């Protein structure tokens, strides 16, 4: 018997690769899983153990030949999706790393590079809260083991570390900015707080906010201020009225400066 290859479909359903044929799950019982050929014009069937580790009987005859190159292509898609879910690597880094071990004789079965990169990005967008309405554990810590979630409820999530807050406390010049294009669907914007540290502007705090009202910004800044003795000399924001009102109210002795943003 040949080697069994296990896959998942775009919807997370079980798939099987065996002797050059691709099968999708048709139904399952307590004692076996029944797969049918991915080609819907073909009546080929394959029965496996519930764990999909053993073929219980040789597949029924197909009306077409095998496609040996398609199985490595499906394996690659599953690898990049799994790696995207488990790591913070750039999409291009994941793809190039996995492609190094891909057989050249199957290259014709691969989707375009842009399509594979979109697959990685979609996988990351699919990551959401768990059953307790909390972020999964692997998103709650940095690679150095520091806690990365300062505040979390249904109105606001703040990401930062103790180290970042210590740096922010030492910074005399802050820069705040919001972006809407990369924000998860349950929130309205990602609001980022940067600090000028050793002649470099670095991002130190990230907030997911449900809106852009003065109250939203007040909650963000007030939660940050609970973590230390912050005394910036200046805070630079765009000219959004709600942001300016919040900064002037909570930091009355701090110089506020505005700047104009241009969306591409």
From TrEMBL:
It comes from Rotaria magnacalcarata. Residues 8-64 form the FLYWCH-type domain. It comes from the Eukaryota. The keyword Nucleotide-binding does not apply. GO terms for molecular function: zinc ion binding. The keyword Transcription does not apply. Keywords: Metal-binding, Zinc, Zinc-finger. Pfam families: FLYWCH, MULE. Residues 174-257 form the MULE transposase domain. This is FLYWCH-type domain-containing protein.
